[in-house]
Write a structure and sequence with these properties.
Four copies of one chain form a homotetramer. With 386 residues, chain A is α/β, with parallel strands linked by helices. Chain A folds into two domains: 127 residues, Rossmann fold, CATH 3.40.50; 195 residues, Dihydrodipicolinate Reductase, domain 2 (2-Layer Sandwich), CATH 3.30.360. Chain A has twelve helices and 14 strands. A nine-stranded mixed β-sheet of chain A has the order 13-12-11-10-6-9-8-7-14. Chain A has a five-stranded parallel β-sheet with strand order 2-1-3-4-5, with helices on both faces. In chain A, helix 4 runs parallel beside helix 5. Chains in contact: A-B, A-C, A-D, B-C, B-D, C-D. At the A-B interface, strand 6, strand 7, strand 8, strand 9 and strand 10 of A face strand 6, strand 7, strand 8, strand 9 and strand 10 of B.
């Protein structure tokens, strides 16, 4: 394909944080260009925003249905190649279904959708259409977690025993939603966020990482959800014991009331022959541990020959020139766009599926569902719907 | 009192790790001197070891009963002022009872003893005699955890919400006990270690710290114990959700199969107005966190005026001249010997009890008991015996 | 201006590292688009590369002179608004002069040029034309160094006493240039790199940072250059004592033979009332030190209200979502493009000059010149040409 | 020898920091006991202090001459075996000469003495008597620097190219000596500290470490001394370029006005095949670097089989149980007392000299002398007296 892929966007207008990140990430490598969008449910604001970011006015739509329909009618060389959906949780399902119905591949900012019913329907639809479908579980696409996955797969730490994932944030330590702060308001509102805030928002990243790096499925959970700040309906803190395939065990501790903690996702995996440790606060480092030996500091860098090939393919700079959050999005978009290109040329080809896909999205929803059920029922083990 | 206090020791002979630490810690500040002991159940080895460390031969005893009896008959200025018991878990109770029966104050290396029955009996005895009784929950006496306790008490982080304690070690990642290694062998043997290995050995430190810093009691636990290495009877890994007074919550994750982790005790406490974080790998640092403000790095040092008085009293060097593990023991021994001095002068005085005492020791035993029961019964909540 | 700025590029074709970084950095914020270029001295390769990155074939030129001439003839709405020059050191001058002669603003990857004669001529030309002219001393535009500069300017650490900058790299520990490695080959070749390798390449970053953060000029240097690897003509290691205005002092230690060090630029500045410390390996952190108080950890993040406004304007993500090297380039391009926009609308307006400009570029050249002279003459003090 | 060695002390009375450290360090391993002393030039205070630390009153002396004379007359089994001198710099020489004249081995807290004349005389005396003579360059005896020395000697990082040592402290950022603070007052007084404050006090540690780890002598220095705080006669900041044997080079940067820095001694050594890095703020870690490979974290611990034998002999605890400053003193005293024991048994035996000896002490004095001369003469190279 001798052109950039064309992307449409739903959501992500003025004031939205994640929309801008998606635009920067998608376009970073010069393989994708944003060509159209519906950036707000307020159509005036949507159009105004589209102009601000220099889009052609005739590609600025009032509703996502209009966008899907109009774009689908454009010649293949002009129309968008896929849609990126970056709205809040309760507004993922409808535009996704619309896109799929019009034959467009879809990327959604996690979580997949709002309810288990939506999740089941969306999964069926994706499988029926065979369209590429991606989800931005971003953290997994930091190079050093790609490296971790490759090392586990390559048996460098042996059979997995335990996975420890923590994700403390402090930003909801006070009742920020009372101030009208946008991010806090919708996340703490069951009508918009769903049945869980803390675990649904950040605990799911932990769950995804556990499966992604280990290659093992989480099968059961025992959870304790807390709402420490008075007046909150949804959890702002969650601890989860879990069981995985092959008798591996794990713990997820996530919190939004961890005063002074930024976004301190930390991932550790212990096997029979070694262990790996990664932290978002030092995301270009992977600690490689073998009992009785000095710990090794694996660092990112395209020039670091000791890294796996897959890791090096997901970096742009030599060691000591730090990449970050936007590049992790770019890595997902790059994998996804490879599939879209192949699909565009020949819809019958196999997918690489190196990006988080519909099954990962469904699993995330089912995990939250089981966690909430476990907590409600008094901290008992719950199986996760498959 | 114009002389050093005299200490007797039970256990801690050749090859024992913790005995030497107790001797160095107790004597570091020049206020205590070791004068007698029974260092081994083998009386020849005991005497030989006593000579090696330059003790008077007539103060080297064959059994602890002989030691208690003989020392009790010496003039008050000559005889030992207290006994330090550093034997393995199943050999704490008998010498402790003997010492108390002979009127000697006692320090025991944690845990208190071997069974709940012993614990109940020992507690009664201590309370009945009114003798000073200490336990070396060492980590709590690192200066920066003394500081943490003082800050919490002083309401500097507000009402406590959550306490997170982890303690990963890697030294039992393989079946070390099969090699005959001394430490591994008795700890993994139910006849010597008791009903738990991992949680009993290191999880209890976590539990003690949680109560010590927060000033709140742990009331209930829900635990999952694992034995990852094949052939092990006792746990080598343990995760515990817990409830505290005043609706605080917490998690303890301890492990002996955390490949490559040394002794990475980490303690975090989150309140309504701030948080504190301490790690054994950087033990002279306490991170002080307030949401929305830069994290502050509190460092040890007698010259650091921003530290609480109690903290500064437990350091010997100015900032940048690191103290360590032995000094933490010395801090406990200093507090304990203050009480012994006061008691020696006047047995009716009140105790400072600034060191871990019989109640802390009993709580440790009861905590392990409840944790094991919770795990055996399928990970359900268990109340802790008071 | 209701469109993106148009950028042309000289250099940066296949295999070049820094060209890709400039393209990503310049276009990251959606305010600039690359429209034309000469990417290689081999015109076939240049055109082939331009196609690869999806440029219009009729904007792919064979020489930079052709590019300047052709673009200058295009209508103002179509032609490039400025040129980015990312060739190796000895090929900066000619395209820069050509661009300026055709009325195009210029960005050059540091250093400014190849010789002092070129530097003097280029400075005269820039001043004569009044065109915006920028240089990518990238490190200075990491948010936390922008913060450092703002804090110093705001007198938060008082009168400056000392500036310590170190920049150890290990990549030339062996004679890498013998293997034909591209980066190593030209940098160690006096015909391409100029009179210095190590100090010219990385020591200059240190010098720039020292002046940038302190707001003080370096006036004199005393330098020791070393070539540790046998057979090298140019330095691979350099230590420099320096004097600044207002009696401040400093040290720069840069090295390319620091085995195992990546790109460990570290900057410290000490004033009468405090100190600041920044390191490239933890670039989103600034340590703020006041004698007798706990160190404060300032962290990047648009939501961190304790940061200066100027700092926050140079970030895209909230705390805990790391930005990196590419974003630092983007910050320079953003400042630069602001000036270009203002200039395009009205050439008589004042420049913001918030990016490194021609004076900074000249200073870099003069600094290297004085450092080399000092070392050659036996480590004596040398004044720096102004 | 079937008893503890007996130590006498000169200096180190009430309020002195380093005296207490020497007492704890010397006695930590149970091989040495303090038996006598002159703790203050005020004999009343001296005696009062001696009682406080429970010494026999008849071993508390009024002057060091009296002590040497009286102790020398005691039976060999009773009298002190060696003297530890912990007075301020200008009061080292006289008691040391007196001790040597009376046949007592001597340990002095560094620096050796006050003037070059004293240093020459003391060196002659020590060599003439053949008595064991030690100096507490403490940092070198942290286990991980013992490890560094062993690795260099074992050629694990190849031929040495460069040694970088920095030692920033912040405690004299303000004119602390004006407040009467004891440590600051004598150190900034040329009558008590000598010709240099900053370099003499802490720069010498850097110089010693450079020679100790590398095994190479420093031959020439080029130094810049600064007195940043107004009204100071002596330096409070010093940068030194140095040359070593075998064409190795190095830099020492030491400062007492580094606001907020504690005692941040940092040591790095770069060879043709690797590099080592150690920092006092994380003193139980040694980073081992090889270009192109992951950095390895070597950690202290008697159980770490990857450490050299000599390193393991200088530790008391397993990994993760931190030792510190006092233990480093203990290591020097242990090596020194081994020599004293051998000497006591047979004065003609060879010394191990594993502790810093008279030659190290003389070198420290000569280094300071050359550094001051270099700075005074305008930052020119100076040879160091041998």
């Amino acid at each position: 394909m001798d052109r950039k892929l064309k992307m449409g966007m739903v959501g992500g207008g003025s004031g939205a944080f994640i929309g801008g990140i998606h635009r920067m990430g998608a376009q970073l490598d010069g393989q994708i260009e944003l060509v159209c969008g519906v950036f707000s449910s307020n159509s005036e604001q949507s159009i105004s925003f589209g102009k601000e970011i220099y889009l052609d006015e005739d590609r600025l739509y009032k509703t996502f249905d209009e966008m899907m329909a109009c774009e689908a009618r454009l010649p293949i060389e002009q129309r968008m190649d896929f849609v990126s959906i970056v709205t809040q949780n309760n507004l993922h399902f409808a535009p996704a279904m619309s896109a799929l119905n019009h034959g467009f591949p879809v990327v959604i900012d996690k979580p997949l959708c709002f309810t288990m019913d939506e999740a089941r329907e969306l999964r069926s639809k994706v499988k029926a259409t065979g369209l590429p479908f991606g989800l931005t579980y971003t953290y997994a696409y930091y190079p050093m977690l790609i490296q971790a996955k490759a090392m586990v797969k390559n048996l460098e730490i042996g059979k997995i025993r335990k996975v420890m994932v923590e994700y403390p944030q402090g930003w909801l330590s006070d009742k920020l939603e009372s101030t009208g702060q946008k991010q806090a308001s919708w996340r703490s509102d069951p009508q918009k966020a769903g049945i869980s805030n803390c675990f649904g928002d950040i605990g799911t990243h932990c769950g995804h990482l556990a499966e992604y790096v280990s290659g093992l499925k989480i099968t059961e959970v025992l959870a304790g959800l807390n709402a420490f700040v008075q007046g909150r309906t949804l959890d702002d803190d969650a601890d989860v014991l879990f069981k995985m395939e092959q008798e591996a065990k794990g713990v997820i501790s996530s919190s939004q009331v961890a005063q002074g903690d930024e976004n301190n996702l930390k991932f550790r995996i212990y096997g029979e022959e070694g262990a790996l440790e990664w932290s978002n606060t030092d995301h270009n480092t992977l600690l490689v541990k073998k009992q009785g030996k000095p710990i090794q500091i694996f660092r990112s860098g395209v020039d670091n020959a000791f890294l796996h090939e897959e890791t090096r393919l997901n970096m742009r700079t030599p060691s000591g020139h730090p990449e970050g959050y936007i590049e992790a999005f770019a890595n997902i978009y790059r994998y996804f766009s490879d599939d879209v290109k192949h699909f565009t040329i020949d819809p019958t080809t196999n997918r690489s599926c190196k990006y988080p896909n519909i099954d990962d999205g469904f699993k995330g929803m089912a995990l939250v569902d089981a966690v909430v059920a476990s907590s409600v029922d008094g901290n008992v083990w719950k199986k996760i719907e498959e």
